[in-house]
Amino acid sequence: MTDSVTIKLTIPSLSDYVGVARLTASGIANRMKFTHEDIEDIKIAVSEACTNAVQYAYGDSLGEIEMAFGIYDDKLEIVISDSGKGFDIESDVTTQEDDPEKIGLGLGIVFMRSLMDQVDYNTSETGTTVTLVKKVSS
What is the DSSP code (8-state) at residue 53? Predict the structure, then answer.
């Protein structure tokens, strides 16, 4: 494959549909010949990003989570976006070191960063975009 291919998926911001995102990511990663371990890592990272959007983006309102799976020769790039309220990564993220009783958004971010080769955030009052990258092992 010399050109990139993009697959797009939109799901409602309901926890019932996070599994659809996981299955889509798994199917694409399997087709790209990722190892079983890498596929499991990708599925967990996608679940965490989608679950954060479900829990924090829209409050009690129903919204959409948009995903774009960029398939390249050497990597899978997954962009997960919502148009809900954003968050301040510096003040809204609580990790176990900060307060073991108040683990929130930060734990998912820690998981994503440990499982993927690259994780980037772009967040504002009009939404959040998380970009997850996993490189294909040679």
Answer: I
Q: What is the pLDDT of residue 102?
A: 47
What number of residues does the chain have? 138
Average pLDDT over residues 28-52: 96
Give dist(CA 20, CA 61) in Å, integer: 20
- Rounded to 10 deg, the angle between the 36-52 and 18-31 helix axes is 150
pTM of the model: 0.86
- Residue bearing the bigger pLDDT, 90 or 57: 57
Question: DSSP labels for 40-102?
Answer: HHHHHHHHHHHHHIIIIISTTS--EEEEEEEE-SSEEEEEEEE-S----TTTT---TTT-TT-
Answer whether CATH 3.30.70.20 is correct for domain 5-135: no
Q: Name the helix (H) or strand (E) containing 36.
A: helix 36-52
Domain boundaries along the sequence of the chain: 5-135
CA distance 91 to 98: 11
